[in-house]
Design a protein that fits this description.
Layout: H1 10-32, H2 38-67, H3 80-89, E1 97-103, E2 110-115, H4 118-132, H5 145-149, H6 153-174, E3 176-181, E4 184-189, E5 199-204, E6 209-212
Parallel strand pairs: 2-6
Antiparallel strand pairs: 1-2, 1-3, 3-4, 4-5
Helix pairs in contact: 1-2, 1-6, 2-3, 2-4, 2-6, 3-4
Length: 215
Amino acid sequence: MNQLEQAPVAPQRYANVMTLVKARLIEVRRLLSNDLDVFSLEIIGNHFRKIVEAVAYSALIACEMEFDQVPRQIRNQWNASGILTFLSEKNLLNLPKRAVIQDAPSGSGSHYTVYDGTDELLPWLLNVYEQVHFFAHEPNPYSQWRYYAGLSNSFLSEQRDIAIGLQKHLQEWLWQHVIQVREKWYVVRLGLEDSSSAVVEGIPLPTLVNDQPRS
């Protein structure tokens, strides 16, 4: 990197992270559209692992946007569980809220339906991360011998169904979402299902908001 080149500001950093999340979600769906074998299963598992890590990084960036700094204890942390748990324990955790954005009935501005559920998201994310982290390593033939014995078509079919559900849930959650920082909303759109970049737009707190429980 050119020494004169400056690191991106926090909203652009957030957009960069979500652009890669978008690419991973699209690639996972492409892989799931074909027959699944053990190697494509491992690739999918690693994509999911990295998406959870990206969510943890996005929470770290949201912390920077809120407080103008990143806690030094986790600035270079890579483990999603460590980042999310630390932020939660310090009451600094700001997770994305799924949003559906439509033109306002008046024709002026937008109407936001926001699905909250961030209290439930943390244990769910930690559980997903623990499960998919398995795919980052070769199965231990002593403690994980059942994995070797279970590589059947029925096992792969079951895993494919699980992965389809997880991909759908992550896409619905992250494709359009908001984070609130101080008295401002940051609206995040991943856009078309192509190679275009995610967009992060800071706006004043909107008035047309329909809060919904997590769906």
